[in-house]
Amino acid sequence: MNFVVDYCLLYKKLFSDVRLFEAFKYLHIGCISDLKRKSLSEIAKIVGLNKYQGLHHLLKTPSWDVEKRRVLRFELILQILKGRPIILIIDETGDRNKGTKIDLC
What we know:
Layout: H1 2-9, H2 18-31, H3 40-46, H4 53-60, H5 66-81
């Protein structure tokens, strides 16, 4: 999970409270985990928290500036790409999954 911590550290300056930064990191770890249900209580369990309130607080009352986060994310993407071309694929269908399988062709 070191890559998650390294990624989250790039955003650390957006957080004035270390507890909120830790919650930010834990949410990322939970999102890429093998959990079937990615609820806050389940994420809290796998990252070793007794309660999920800190995760909830991060989402309910974010302390970061959304525009600053967007700008930082864009700057980081440009740094990582180093001028290399990319292909951006946008799924604009908005179709909701109606089952448990996806038809690929």
